[in-house]
């Protein structure tokens, strides 16, 4: 998921739940500034914070492991 995709998803969830960014931050257990940056696609958000924000809106993250072989 890109930061832009996360932003769109979070904005949609905030609107449907009638939540403010402050509500999201409180429910996710992250700083207001972290939630604001995620909803506006500003900078990069840590994996831990991304997961907390997604869980707060009832979503979950799945991490897929890719095998990578370096060429000789």
Question: Please, could you describe this protein's structure?
Answer:
The protein has 72 residues and is mainly alpha-helical. The protein contains four helices and no strands.
| Mean pLDDT metric | 93
Query: What structural class do the secondary elements suggest?
Result: mainly alpha
* SS strand fraction: under 5%
Total number of β-strand segments?
0
State the shape. elongated
Number of helices: 4
Q: What is the first-to-last residue Cα distance? A: 31 Å
Sheet having the most strands: none
**Low-pLDDT sequence parts:** none
Fraction of residues in helix: 55-70%
Query: Which H/E pattern describes the elements?
Result: HHHH
Radius of gyration: 14 Å
Which key phrases capture this entry?
72 residues, mainly alpha, 0% strand, elongated
